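Notes from hallway chat w/ T.B., transcribed later so I don't forget. T.B. wanted the structure written out for a chain they're using in a teaching module, and asked if we could keep both sequence and structure tokens in one place. Agreed to drop them here.
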Amino acid sequence: MKNQLFLLSAFIFFCISCEVKVDKSPVFEISFSEALSSGSFDGRLLLLISTNDENEPRFQISDGTTTQQVYGVDVAGMKPGEAVRVDGQAFGYPVRSLSELEPGEYYIQAFLHKYDTYALANGHTVSLPASWAAGSRWNREPGNYYSTPVKVTIGSGSNIKIMMDQEIPPVTEPEDTRYIRHIKIQSKLLTEFWGRPIELGAHVLLPEGFDAHPEARYPLMVFHGHFPSDFGGFRTEPPDPGLEPDYSERFHLDGYNIIMQQEAHDFYKKWISNDFPRFIVILVQHANPYYDDSYAVNSANLGPYGDAITYELIPYVEEMFRGIGEGWARFLYGGSTGGWEALAVQVMYPDDYNGCFAACPDPIDFRAYTVVNIYEDENAYRIKGAFKEIKRPGHRDYLGHISSFLEDMNHRELALGTHSRSGQQWDIWEAVYSPVGDDGYPARIWNKETGEIDPKVAIYWRDNYDLRYIMERDWKTLGPKLKGKLHIYCGDMDNYYLNNAVYLTEEFLEGTTDPYYDGEVDYGDRAEHCWNGDQQNPNAISRLRYNTMYLPKILKRIEESAPKGADLTSWRY
């Protein structure tokens, strides 16, 4: 009996003495106004928190140290006036949980990134962003709801209500001009895949004298890159005289907006000059539910964008605007995403294009998927030893100073969207390269929270999208078709370490025989991201000259490789 009393007393004492942890994290109850809609919506509900009012919080989420805070939760069937709770369980970036947020005064905003339901040809039904008219930029997509930012005090146990009462308006379509036309077609291939009408588009820059020379047939230049709202970098008027000069933090230049306008006008003057070769340039419009473009290849998750662009869109453009319409008269160029696309399209459609100029390409060898070897590393975020771990870097400057880590960059995406739906860089690589997962969404190359790599998914990536591996594997048949067509450029201090994959690819290319690749790989000393082969000018200038800088090499290639009887004159007026 004494023992029982002792145990009971000890238990009571322990319970009185122990600290009972109660979740005191702030709670936000978010709804949208009936004035916006009487319907219900699926999507990603975001709570945005900022320490300043320099801009709306929705425009302040980034990978750098200036980023503000975001928390996200998935919602299904959210109805007007119905409050959705965002609390300490919501995944956040950069502060993981609301329970860890320092008490204080903040500017807050709620945002609903709407999703729609897609019944895909592969038999899966998925919920993905409903609009990509603004290039899959969640914070600007038409139809998404948001609240007006307000200043509040957030503390332990706070309960704050937010009503979304604003809707992002439709995008204004660009108008045709004398030189620039805009076309859209419904893709049969993509419509079949997505189970609904899907369009492809292009901004088309026409040559000087197009209407005055109906007999002319033109080569086609495909300028790949991110979602362009119009054909940029071409301006018939001089810079605006009253334009207030701005400062480019990236290039450390005053008046960079004026420089860009002047470069665009200089391009126009070259374009119409008597000695400038006449050809057509297109910027492809292929935004989709996952990203601002498709990476211009066929994908298990995005559909047959490669075939749709090469066999539907480009022939349509060439027929409408009198293109030559043969592989020897088509060329590819672009930087970053566009650099990867230029090389990938040339490799995967070797007979349909006559040369690619791939600047600062996204990883073209997955042994250097930025700083990760997806075939040998176990974890993407950390290098682990017996007693120490090192976080893998994600972004640096030309001096090697690190501003973000891979883990943080991926956690930002996870806060913005689950299932590869953030509309950001790492998620689109996953959506393009991965097989379809059991749930219908892209199979994860690594666990988004922990960084653990899935080796089975890595092998799928290698066999289908590792461009160096594919070329090396298939060089016996690819080599003769790619000889003289490959040009790759990268800064040796690329912000995202993309030069590492270029080194590995160059090692293979320079070792090729039967045939030798007979192309070009070049590096910019201490050059950051977007270096594109110009050894005379800084990035700030050369990145504005894609449409002129490769011309001498393109013309030389045409002269050397055009088939007998090819039209080399009608477009040289």
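Follow-up for T.B.: The domain at 180-365+467-491+538-561 is CATH 3.40.50 (Rossmann fold). Might be a good example for the class.
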